[in-house]
Amino acid sequence: ELQQKLEETELLKMELQMLETERVRLSLVEEKLMDVLQLLQQLRDLNISKRALGKILLSTLESCRDPQPGKACLFEVLDTLYHELTACELLQSQPLEKAQSHQSLSNPLVISC
Predict the structure, then answer these.
(1) Residue 29 and residue 15: Cα distance in Å, rounded?
(2) 31-82 pLDDT, tens per residue?
(3) Residue 17 has pLDDT above 80, yes or no
(4) Coil, strand, or helix at residue 72?
(5) Any idea what DSSP says for residue 46?
(6) Which of 20, 22, 58, 73 sits in a 20 to 30 Å window from 30, CA-based?
(7) φ and ψ at 67, to 5 degrees?
(8) Cα–Cα distance for residue pair 41/47, rounded to 1 Å
(9) What does the alpha-carbon distance between residue 93 and residue 99 come to, in Å, rounded to a whole number?
(10) Residue whose C-alpha is closest to residue 35's, from 84, 101, 94, 70
């Protein structure tokens, strides 16, 4: 009976470790998603054309067509999209003070469920 309890304890420890790993992974995905959404909102405020935004999205999807081994596909797509958006000329030509004041506002993207 003691041996069985030890085995159950080990299984529970392993499950807890897996859950913690998943929690961290989801937290990273959530952070990257929020970054991407903020960039999209900034671009919308700068009146980016739908065509330019479509090109960014297609470029991202093309880059992520063949997932790299060892990288989570969802995170890879979000990360690539984030880098594609930050490279957008509209964001790079945005005045620094406007970017800083926009970032200092409370986050309008957070939705209460």
Answers:
(1) 21
(2) 999 999 999 999 999 999 999 999 999 999 898 887 666 566 888 899 999 9
(3) yes
(4) coil
(5) T
(6) 58
(7) -60, 140
(8) 10
(9) 10
(10) 84
Q: ∠ at Cα 72 (70, 77), nearest 5°?
A: 125
Tokens of 78: 């979000």
* Residue corresponding to tokens 């420890």: 13
- Polymer length in residues for the chain: 113
What token pair was written down for 24?
A: 């961290």
Tell me the percentage of the chain whose pLDDT exceeds 90.
Answer: 58
Question: What tokens were used for 40?
Answer: 């999209």
Which amino acid appears at position 35 of this protein? D
Task: Indicate if the pLDDT at residue 111 is higher than 80.
Answer: no
Residue type for position 111: I
